[in-house]
Amino acid sequence: MGFYLYKLIAPRVTFAQDMTDAEAQVLKVHSEYWTDYAARGVAVVFGPVLDPKGSWGLAIVEAKDEAKVRAIGTEDPAVKSQFGFKFEVYPMLQVVSRK
């Protein structure tokens, strides 16, 4: 098992400020999707990052390999939507967490 950073990339830099009602609904389902992974202990933490260059989503995922995280990302309702979300996965070399 290892840890991975999952980065959800919004379709535009201004997304957090000007998302449509339809996009907000997709993000609601996206949040429910990741809440389920958190409840099962797969997602350690997840949420939006308010980067001045454009907000993006973050999840730290514990999985047996990167392929599993990519499979989770491929099924993410935001990624599956027609709105143009993309994702990236980065393996973490080492993780130190609080007790």
Outline of the structure:
With 99 residues, the chain is an alpha+beta fold. The chain has helices at 15-18, 21-39, 66-75, 77-80, and strands at 2-9, 43-49, 56-63, 86-91.
Q: Could you say what the CATH architecture is?
A: 2-Layer Sandwich
Shape summary:
globular
**CATH fold title:** Alpha-Beta Plaits
What is the CATH homology-level superfamily? Dimeric alpha+beta barrel
Average pLDDT metric = 96
Question: How many domains, in number, for the residues?
Answer: 1
Largest sheet, in brief, is: 4 strands, antiparallel
What does this structure look like?
With 99 residues, this protein is α+β, with helices and mostly antiparallel strands. It has one domain (2-91): Dimeric alpha+beta barrel (Alpha-Beta Plaits, 2-Layer Sandwich). Helix content is 37%, strand content 29%. It has helices at 15-18, 21-39, 66-75, 77-80, and strands at 2-9, 43-49, 56-63, 86-91. A 4-stranded antiparallel beta sheet has the order 2-3-1-4. A hairpin with a 6-residue loop joins strand 2 and strand 3. The protein is globular. The chain starts with a strand and ends in an 8-residue tail after the last strand. The model has no long low-confidence stretch (mean pLDDT 96).
